[in-house]
Amino acid sequence: MYKISQHLAWLSLWRRKTRSAMVVMMIALCLSGLLGLQGLYDGMISHMINTTIRSDSGEISLYAKEYRLNKSLDYRLSPLSKFENAFSQIEAIDAYTVRLEQEGLIATAHKSRGATLKGISLEKEQNFGQLDAFITKGNYSFGKGNKNALIGSALAKKFNLSIGSRVIFTAQDVTGEINSISFRISGILKTGNPALDENSVFISMEKISKFLNLQQSATQIALRVKETENIKKVQDQLQILFPDTDVLRWDELYPLLIQMQEIMNIFNLASYAIVFIVAALGIFGVMLVSVLERMREFSIMLAIGTPYRIVRNQIIMEASFLGIIGFLAGALLGGVLLFYMSTAGIDMRSFEAGLELYGYSAVMYANMHLYYFFQAFFAVFFATLLSVIWPLRKLKKIKPIQVIQGKML
Amino acid sequence: MLFSLAFRNIVKSKGRSIITLLLSTFTTIFFIIYVAFTDGSHHQFIKSSVEIYTGYAHVNLNGYRDEGGYDNLIEDAGSIDQILKNDSSIKTYSPRFETYSLLSGDEKAVGSMIVGIIPSSEASLSKLPSSLIKGEYLTDNDTNAIYIGSALAKRLNVDIGSQVAMVGSSIDYSIAADLFTIKGIFKTGLFEFDSQAAFVNKSYLDTIMLSDNIASYFTLYFHDNEHIDDVTTALQASLPSEVEAVNWKILLSALVQAMLVDSIFNYISISIFFLVIFFVIMIFSYVNIYTRAREIGLLRALGLTSKDIFGMLFVEILLLATVSIVVGTIIGASIAYYYELHPIVISGIAETYKEYGVVSDEIPMNFDLFTIAWNALTIFILNLAAIIYPVTKINKLTAMEAMRYV
Amino acid sequence: MKWLLSLLIITLSLQANEAQAIIKKLEKNLRGDYMYSTMSMIVTSKRGKRTVKIESWSEGNDKSFIKILYPKKDKGITFLKIDNQMWQYIPKIERTIKIPPSMMLQSWMGSDFTNDDMVKESSLEEDYNAKLLSKKANSATLELIPKEDAAVVWGKIIIDVDLKNAVPVKETFYDDMMKKVRVMTFSKIEQHGSHRVPMVMELKPLDANKKKNSTKVIFEKVNFDAKIDPSYFTKQALKRYSR
After folding, report:
1. Preferred mutation among A71, A72, A256, A394 to probe B, highest tally of B CBs within 10 A
2. Which domain holds residue A274?
3. Number of helices (H), then strands (E), in chain A
4. Which is more confidently placed, B222 or C1?
5. Among B257, B259, B283, whose Cβ lies nearest the Cβ of A282?
6. Does the residue B57 lie in any domain?
7. Same domain, B212 and B302
């Protein structure tokens, strides 16, 4: 039964090639454009969130109370062992890293500037957020004897530093005494996180502890909790264990990121609404016209005894074909676009200064998720169904004899 | 005759005409508001960043921006002052003397930027006076009063009435030192600024810094800040050769780029919207015209040529489009105008975006007749372009074929 | 072959040792256990010439106390340096402040010396490895490379030494890329007690836009032999000896 309708439907579409092509093109263009934009925005935001989590806060960060308002060494987490023991008991924690930092002055023979010195463990950071992947020059190591340093790319650029260059860092230790320390650069990092790239120098935890006259201390401990459901649980657990410490999630530390995500979700919903409207209207328009055009033809079919449902099914199938082909074309085009943007990325390097000011990387990558296509499919599917309602009503009202006689309008 | 036919057609099929009108009107209104809103938000962004402290343009000695220090100061501020006073394009201006000194509450000393300003002039040039959160702003008669950023006050552990010592170097490199009393505390929302800047009455600071008749630069506010490049170039012509006039586009270049990126994204979004609207109008015209196929066929049979048909349909859409554009423009423009005067308040936006320099929750729309005019024109053309395909299609049918349509 | 090699090694290490010995002698001569001096510092810059008269007390390399005598505007300002810390007292506002890290590389009293220079004035022996580049009868040229852990900004310092008097004649400072940054020259050698010292020192930065700048220090009185009261090297001294 369906075969006849299907066959007829397909033929009808081919009879009106241009018209069908127009609808398909309309749906395809809108769909691919919106898919592309969605992927790009999604990519940008998840990149930002990812960078922040990997290079800074992790899913959860611990700070001594007061530290975030007043970055003094007086507010530190100590002794580390009590924290590390607690972490080993909680399974949901995938990795953690310990950082000790102090603000001070970085200098060469020509220039000096404020900067932050951060003591880290290379191994822990690599495990934590693959910090090694951010190395653009040199090596991910503190060199022989762990005496060298890694520096942010923008900072290196300002001071004209390259691998092997020597810099001095001057700061106050925990007792308030001013000390200086020197090291050579063994690697340059570009994380995409402006706070790091423009301001930070990394040395080993041992070296900074000695410099600051501290033992077993940290200013920040960051945790990775990869399963999203566990994040709140772990946070609550740790807060009970350490009531005098700030235990905060990344979205509490950087509410802006969540805001951006929410704006993006709204945008996506709006986009799908638009695709829906376009598909519905397009198919509606074309179907209505083609039904009206063929009133005489349908009347003849009905008059010779064709069951109503065959004619009805034919129309539904015509609409469905238009929808499916439009969707496939759009998905294909959109897919190619997304694939290109997610691998090669969009090069906006000429706007580098402005973008990096706001934490965006100069080369943007799109995300590509299966659910984009599913959402689009549903939008088009429902649009198709909705669009045939009116034409079908018109069809229902047909009085075959009168149409054939030319009396019905 | 075509005209009367067209008019009759419009009036006769009220349903269709109304839908077409609504579609175009809605699109016009939406486009106008969208552009007004995005332009407005950019303006606000720029205004916030520029007006917090920097100002719309600076006049400084060549080389000052690269070197800083005391080697490239304007040594005869009085003569520059005269030039600026007599320049009709400048609304307000004021000299500033910036220096990096130590401020200390007790023994702890913090490196800060101390600026000598003329308090009364600054009121109309920057957000300094309005950022006051505690105490009072400076007056032109103040001596040891200092107006300090909130985060800096916190670092130094001082409050209104506390005394801070300032130690720096005067123009001749001798030690400049004095005790100041905190008169007011300000909070602009820009942490970097609030944690490093403090202001003093210039005439008093001059006595300590020996900077009388000397300025680091002059900050300017033009009457026409919209055409800032033109006025800056014009001003440059009247300044001596060793002095340059630079506007915020150079002073805040990263901001300029960020705005550009935002604009690009906005244009992409609106283009997609246009694509959608174009198709919607086209489909609608398509349906419209084809459902009148029979009637058109009749007219053709009666002797109208395809050219006439084209003309008639074109006039129809012209009339409808014109009405919708006019109505849409009036409504859209009124909304834009209203919201320019009473900006939209999205509470919380300042808090969230404050590190980007956004300090106000208000987003006024930008009411600009020129922009609105070309917005309306674009929709108008879009309307006309949308019907081309359906109309040419229908003209390809012969009269007989057309009359067969139901 | 082995014999040649060992000879080479011995010569080199002798040279290094010799260089190190020269530096040691230099510092001992210039610094001594206690030193009292008065000097004029003339700073030339784009803005003109400025003269500052200074009185100075120091104990070894680690402690020094400086008092400004002239001009009148700056008279009574005192500085105290102990190890890496520096304090300043300004009589006009009766306040003592500690120089924070962010100001360490700012110029001292407007001269071409930085606060950091004042704090780290003499640590050549401690912070550098010396190598002999050339030696003649009465003079030698040494190359000083900073030790691995030394917190100094220079890439190297080349010193021309007057061996007879155990004083430097010229010190050239290079940055990390081995580009010349500044030159210090010493002249007018005089005998004071058991020490021979250059009475005139001039520092010239080589930066293109600092061409006109120079800082000249002329010692007036120098005394190595009297012990200095340790009370000079306390924070109380800042105010007490200001007058």
Report:
1. A256
2. 2-52+257-404
3. 16, 12
4. B222
5. B283
6. no
7. no
**Set of chain A residues whose Cβ sits within 8 Å of the Cβ of C100:** 172, 178
Q: What is the mean pLDDT of residues B181-196?
A: 86
Q: Do residue A166 and residue C176 have CB atoms under 8 angstroms apart?
A: yes
> Residues B1-7: what's their mean pLDDT?
78
Domain of residue B276, residue span: 2-50+255-404
Contacts of C171 in chain A (CB under 8 A): none
Q: Measured between alpha carbons, how far is C82 from C119 in angstroms, rounded to an integer?
A: 8
B173 close contact with C: CB closer than 8 A: yes
Minimum-distance CB partner of A105 among C84, C101, C177:
C101
Q: Does C212 touch chain B (CB under 8 A)?
A: no
Q: Are residues A266 and A203 in the same domain?
A: no
**Which of residues A195, A211, A243 is at a domain's end?**
A243
- State the average pLDDT over residues C4-22: 75
> What is the SS3 assignment for A245?
strand
Instruction: Give the chains touching B; criterion: ≥3 Cβ pairs < 8 Å.
Output: A, C
- Predicted model pTM: 0.78
Q: Are A374 and A291 in contact (CB under 8 A)?
A: no
CA distances in angstroms from B259 to A142, A357, B26, B367, listed in the order given: 40, 11, 28, 19
ipTM (interface predicted TM): 0.82
Q: Name which of C47, C68, C106 is nearest B172 (Cβ-Cβ).
A: C47
Residue A59 located in a structural domain: no
CB of C152 within 8 A of CB of C140? no
pLDDT in tens, B58-68: 999 888 887 77
B179 and C CB contact within 8 Å: yes
Whether residue B269 sits in one domain with residue B352: yes
Residue B107 is encoded by which pair of tokens?
Answer: 């023994």
Q: Which of B190, B216, B241 is the last residue of a domain?
A: B241
- The residue ranges of chain A whose pLDDT is under 50 are none
d(CA A302, CA A395): 11
pLDDT mean over B86-90: 87
Q: Where is the domain boundary, B206, B241, B276?
A: B241
Among B257, B284, B406, the residue with its CB nearest the CB of A285 is B284
